[in-house]
């Protein structure tokens, strides 16, 4: 079966850094992959750009946009940029914006969604995950919404959270339950990170060390790790009429 995968992050580099290997592997195995970012990361994740005195918000957005498109091309995914302003504590994810996210869900009709860890401390990342797990997901499935788009409602159950940013992973309770072997596509991931070093400090070495560590856990060379969000309640701890019959 050819899967449709939607990998969605708050900022342009989020997916390539934390799930770029998994995304590249989906592509290599013939699946249809969409990579989306809600914002350009123009103020929150463009440190090097703001060291230049002539930088403006518009210039920063345009540079980040080019980086994202370049990275998407290397990974072989279809890029989607929603173009919201970053820093959600100043520019909140309103219902109108959540509807835009829901529209992306309807257009891409994903079987599998990859996004941020929902308990990460960083607002933009956490609120993106929250939108995917709850509001935007519900809006996408609601037949009363987005009628004007002509897009059919879509619901999905498989959400996987990728690893949170480096400095606060353990204290956010990220206890991975899935490792994905990305050894065969490791070079693709590393190449897909290069466009971002124009605007961010190069921390490819950090991601390499994490992947090697994960690889050790999984018994392969390089791996990425995820937590599965369980959208279905499975009541197996106590007998139910159904499992008493079995
Ligand atoms: Zn980010």
What does this structure look like?
The protein has one domain: Rossmann fold (3-Layer(aba) Sandwich), CATH 3.40.50. The longest helix is centred in the first third of the chain and has 19 residues, at 57-75. The mean pLDDT is 92. It has helices at 14-28, 57-75, 95-108, 123-133, 135-141, 186-193, 204-218, 241-245; strands spanning 4-9, 32-39, 78-84, 112-115, 158-162, 178-181, 223-230. A 7-stranded mixed beta sheet has the order 3-2-1-4-5-7-6, with helices on both faces. 38% of the residues lie in helices and 17% in strands. Helix 4 packs parallel to helix 5 (135-141). Bound molecules: zinc ion.
Would you identify the CATH H-level superfamily?
LmbE-like
The molecules bound to the chains, other than polymers, are: zinc ion
- In N-to-C order, the SSE pattern is EHEHEHEHHEEHHEH
Radius of gyration: 18 Å
Based on secondary structure, the structural category is: alpha/beta
The low-confidence parts are none
Number of domains: 1
Which descriptor suits the 3D outline? Answer: globular
- Total helices: the number is 8
What is the CATH domain class?
Alpha Beta
How much of the sequence lies in strands comes to 15-25%
């Amino acid at each position: 079966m050819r899967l449709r995968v939607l990998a969605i992050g708050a900022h342009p580099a989020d997916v390539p850094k934390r799930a770029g290997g998994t995304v590249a592997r989906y592509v290599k195995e013939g699946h249809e992959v969409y990579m989306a970012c809600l914002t350009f990361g123009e103020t929150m994740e463009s440190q090097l750009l703001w060291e230049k005195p002539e930088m403006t918000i518009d210039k920063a957005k345009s540079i980040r946009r080019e980086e994202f498109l370049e990275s998407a091309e290397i990974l072989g995914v279809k890029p989607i940029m929603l173009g919201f302003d970053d820093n959600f504590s100043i520019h909140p994810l309103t219902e109108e914006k959540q509807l835009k996210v829901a529209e992306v869900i309807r257009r891409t009709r994903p079987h599998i969604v990859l996004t941020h860890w929902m308990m990460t401390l960083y607002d933009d990342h956490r609120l993106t995950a929250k939108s995917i797990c709850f509001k935007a997901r519900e809006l996408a499935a609601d037949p009363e919404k987005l009628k004007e788009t002509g897009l059919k409602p879509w619901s999905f159950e498989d959400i996987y959270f990728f690893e949170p940013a480096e400095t606060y992973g353990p204290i956010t309770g990220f206890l991975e339950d899935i490792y994905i072997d990305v050894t065969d596509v490791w070079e693709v991931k590393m190449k897909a990170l290069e466009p971002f070093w124009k605007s961010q400090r190069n921390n490819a070495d950090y991601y390499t060390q994490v992947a090697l560590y994960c690889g050790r856990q999984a018994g392969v060379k390089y791996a990425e790790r995820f937590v599965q969000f369980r959208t279905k309640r499975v009541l197996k701890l106590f007998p139910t009429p159904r499992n008493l019959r079995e």
